[in-house]
Design a protein that fits this description.
Elements: E1 14-18, H1 23-34, E2 38-43, H2 50-56, E3 60-63, E4 76-79, H3 88-96, E5 100-102, H4 103-112, E6 116-121, H5 126-139, E7 145-152, E8 157-160, E9 166-170, E10 175-177, E11 180-183, E12 190-195, H6 209-222, E13 228-232, H7 236-241, E14 248-253, E15 260-268, E16 271-278, E17 281-288, H8 293-308, H9 313-322, E18 331-336, E19 339-344, H10 349-362, E20 368-372, E21 397-401, H11 417-426, E22 431-434, H12 437-447, E23 453-457, H13 465-472
Parallel strand pairs: 1-2, 1-4, 2-3, 4-5, 6-9, 6-12, 7-9, 12-13, 13-14, 14-15, 19-23, 20-21, 20-23, 21-22
Antiparallel strand pairs: 7-8, 10-11, 15-16, 16-17, 18-19
Helix pairs in contact: 1-4, 5-8, 5-9, 12-13
């Protein structure tokens, strides 16, 4: 499926990555360094933890984009997808006639070549599902390679250069590079793939849900008849897309006709216990520190792949017991005075709703205080303006921050946090608007009481609100 038109030379020794501090690019840079290449990089936002992670690897990072950064003449330049054609390093690269490629092209050339690719796709759950699968395979002795969009706590890393025959890749539907506007996942050739669900997202590059579906349709159409697609059964878009697939399709979920199905579920904090059925027959009992049905479905898809790779049910169960989770995914950052502060990456309306619902079941005695920062290209646009009010029903108290980067969005397309709060109040919810992070911290410190869970949802650093709250509570 790789769409690489410009084949990468065999005698590459030095590689420069433009926009190296993104999670995927940082992982790639680290892997290339581990493989023995001379690696340099640049980015305009160089800050921890990625900056420290890369410098500890001995990778020299230039702050800001400057033509001098490529003037030394690297054998190859890897161009991140957020980089435009008028970037000074791209202009200089072009003038010098340097060889260049996109991130997924580099992954295929240097890391994935000759490996069986396990590609995790879908609007939600890619990082969690990839992390679970990586730990199951590693725990079972299969030593996979993986590149993941979050720090897996068991490895304290978002990548691993294993010696096994499998590579686990997050298949992103976002565009590849300025010279390749197709989705990243079209570059991969899956041995097996997971499709967790398809919803509208990435409003900066997709026009509507049909545009998103076209991307996933291309991915499924490109899978070979010998490959297997694990498809979630509770999503209408997925059901429509798999109808015309050439590859083998296996469904997982909660419906009676799914090959892999969730059975009985019970909660006894910090554990969730769940039963798994295969062909409607008992397959195994499992326990995990993850919570929420969405995470059980993510777990189910990973179990299905592990079983296909001949990993015994008992070994899979042991892996779940020892799986520590992912940073920034329902991660408890600390407790102070009986108040728990949790960090989560949720930003899409569905993810916000499911995350709040999941934590509510684990903290039934106290209040769930939902703190939300709309920060993604989609959440700062008004495309979800009328949907977000339905996402906070399970929160006892809701704090909505004004987006900090609204200047990037055309005025007519901007999301309104004030309107969201007004809509939540109209639904009878205790909701409050805040112009900045400081005012949220002051409010929570004055209102928090023992037993409360402060659930902070953002895909950014949120002005280090977690640590600042823990100091003041």
């Amino acid at each position: 499926m790789d769409m690489n038109k410009n084949k990468i030379s065999k005698n590459v020794k030095s590689i420069h990555l433009i926009a190296i501090c993104g999670t995927g690019m940082g992982a790639l840079g680290s892997m290339l360094k581990d493989l023995g290449y001379k690696v340099t990089g640049s980015d305009q936002q160089v800050y921890p933890p990625m900056s420290e992670f890369l410098s500890n690897k001995g990778i020299k990072i230039a702050e800001g984009f400057n033509e001098k950064n490529v003037s030394y003449g690297p054998d190859l330049v890897v161009v991140g997808n957020a980089v435009s054609k008028d970037n000074p390093e791209v202009v200089r690269m072009d003038q010098m006639g340097l060889e260049f490629c996109s991130m997924p092209q580099a992954v295929n050339r240097f890391v994935a070549a000759g490996k069986k690719q396990l590609v995790i796709t879908g609007t939600h759950g890619k990082t969690t599902t990839s992390s679970i699968l990586a730990w199951i395979l590693y725990h079972a002795g299969l030593d996979p390679i993986f590149m993941i969009g979050g720090i897996v706590k068991n490895f304290n890393s978002n990548y691993h250069l294993g010696k096994g025959e499998h590579i686990i890749i997050e298949g992103d539907e976002y565009d590849t590079a300025f010279f390749d506007k197709g989705p990243k996942f079209l570059h991969y050739d899956p041995f097996m793939a997971i499709l967790t669900g398809v919803e509208f997202d990435h409003a900066d590059i997709f026009k509507d849900i049909n545009h998103v579906r076209q991307a996933f349709d291309s991915f499924i159409a490109g899978m070979s008849p010998q490959s297997t697609l694990l498809a979630c059964d509770n999503d209408k878009n997925v059901a429509d897309l798999i109808c015309k697939s050439q590859c083998r399709v296996v469904q997982y979920g909660t419906n009676a006709n799914a090959l892999w199905r969730l059975g009985a579920v019970s909660i006894a904090p910090p554990w969730t216990f769940f039963e798994v059925l295969k062909h409607n027959a008992f397959f195994g009992n499992f326990k995990t520190r993850l919570f929420g049905e969405h995470n059980l479905l993510n777990s189910l898809s990973a179990i299905a792949i592990a079983d296909n790779l001949m990993i015994p049910a008992k070994a899979i169960a042991k892996a779940f017991e020892t799986f520590e989770g992912i940073k920034r995914r329902q991660e408890v950052r600390g407790q102070k005075g009986g108040v728990t502060v949790m960090d989560d990456f949720a930003h899409h309306p569905t993810a916000v709703r499911e995350t709040i619902r999941a934590v509510k079941s684990f903290y039934p005695e106290g209040r769930v205080v939902a703190v939300f920062e709309p920060r993604t290209n989609s959440s700062m646009r008004k495309v979800f303006q009328d949907i977000y009010p339905l996402s906070f029903d399970d929160a006892d108290l809701t704090c909505i921050r004004n987006p900090s980067r609204l200047d990037k969005i055309p005025p007519a397309e901007r999301f309104s946090s004030q309107k969201l709060v007004a809509d939540l109040k109209h639904r009878g919810k205790d909701a409050h608007y805040f112009p900045d992070t400081d005012s949220i911290i002051d409010f929570i410190v004055s209102k928090a009481r023992p037993g409360d869970l402060i659930l902070i949802m953002s895909n950014g650093g949120f002005d280090n609100i977690h640590e600042r709250l823990l100091k003041l509570l």
